[in-house]
Amino acid sequence: MRNSIPRVVAIHDISGIGRTSLTVAIPILSCMGIQPIPLPTAVLSTQTVGTSGFSFLDLSDNMKAMISHWEDRRDSFDGVYSGFMACPEQMESVTRCVDNLLCEDGLAVIDPVLGDDGVLIPTMTEAMVTKMRWLIQKASVITPNFTEVCLLLGERYEGHHPLEELKQYLRALADFGPDVVVGTSMPIIEDPEPQYSSVLAYERSIDKFWRVDCDYIPAHYPGTGDVFASVLTGSLMQGDSLSLSIDRAIQFTTLGVRATYGQDVSPVEGILLERNLSTLRQPLSFCQTRLVL
């Protein structure tokens, strides 16, 4: 019997402190009418960016056991959505979910969590980068930030780039397999001042690019990429177009950053997600995404 509520296997870590990964994916997807099926990759005391001394428990063996049980039950899911991996081996578990548990015409969203601001995040290695290039072949949609775009393509991370060059980067990533590549924090040379943060997306099936420029806010909060990817996944699962899904993800993430900026909150905590979840049920106030020729 087909479940009346869409179900998405959410493959991420759990961080005790810091609104990242499963602690944002679960409430966002639930609020959007999607049932998240958690498949934890690791348990950490805090998120890893801007912190030290955090505890880290790799759940690779438990992931295999959970997947085996679901396979035995003949479970089927409408989506698979992955993020932070604890080791290269876990990417094979993601592939197993896509191959054996994803229903026909299901959605596979892979957020290739590797780094930010030009560097690998603390738990990542070059071996993880290599394996991620293999994993994204299984994706319908990938959501790398610009650092991850460069890591996956072996390009240098530096300065701003012409729009046409960034478009070629996204085409190159689509050549790995995904139909949709959504690049965040893309440094477009036409906007050299830090007044905009751009999202650039490529839809291979129609050979079209989409672009959104967002007002820049001088703050950095871990987990905003997870928030963006979670809303994007939920919106696509609801049947929204790519351009509308990008708009919803950007507007919700921007609202969260604005609600947090200026508050007496440590950046390590992430954005104040709880204050804005109800807005996910409201219609978009305006559309920012535009077609790029």
TrEMBL record:
Keywords noted in UniProt: ATP-binding, Kinase, Nucleotide-binding, Transferase
SUPFAM superfamilies in the cross-refs: Ribokinase-like
GO BP terms in the entry: pyridoxal 5'-phosphate salvage
Endpoints of the signal sequence: none
Molecular function GO terms recorded: ATP binding; pyridoxal kinase activity
Enzyme class: transferase
Name listed for the protein in its UniProt record: pyridoxal kinase
Lineage: Bacteria, Pseudomonadati, Thermodesulfobacteriota, Desulfovibrionia, Desulfovibrionales
